Fold this sequence. Notes:
With 180 residues, the chain is an alpha+beta fold. It has a single domain (3-168), classed as Jelly Rolls, CATH 2.60.120. Helices cover 22% and strands 33% of the residues. It has helices spanning 28-33, 50-59, 77-85, 166-179, and strands spanning 3-6, 25-26, 37-40, 63-69, 88-89, 94-108, 114-120, 123-127, 133-137, 143-149, 158-159. This is acireductone dioxygenase (Fe(2+)-requiring). It is found in: Cell membrane; Nucleus. It catalyses: 1,2-dihydroxy-5-(methylsulfanyl)pent-1-en-3-one + O2 = 4-methylsulfanyl-2-oxobutanoate + formate + 2 H(+).
Amino acid sequence: MVEAWYMDESQEDQRAPHRLRPNRPVSLEQLRRLGVTYRKLDADNYETDPCLKEIRRAENYSWMDVITIHKDKLPNYEEKIKTFYEEHLHLDDEIRYILDGSGYFDVRDKDDKWIRISMEKGDMITLPAGIYHRFTLDENNYVKAMRLFVGEPVWTAYNRPADDFPARKQYMKFLAEEAQ
């Protein structure tokens, strides 16, 4: 089961857990109110998993690939790690399914505080278009993940501030409606 918590303000190693003391856990319901959805799947059988096949059909995830983030596997590794950790948003949902290894997705809550979501093998997350977020490996320094898209993939990340994009405005409207 995925675990999430509010982060401390430390600027130390981004790959550390960065839990507040005392810890302030975040529930799946709290994540859902931010538009973040979570599923647990069978990563050992992802190539033939009927649940994944049904999710792809239902959500119209027509394109996918697999990325391995490790210093020996990813060209321009250090540069990519820095880029992934810059706060940004996308104009489309970001869907990631962890096939092996582990890492963290950080998302901003409605009060602009960071929530860290610990992802491991079998976890699938969907971040809504317009949410500010970032990704980093954890201290294991390895993750293999499936990236899913509706239609052709768009890799463009818009670093903060990016508040004038329609996707951001739509996301802020969603948050306002969830608060009512």
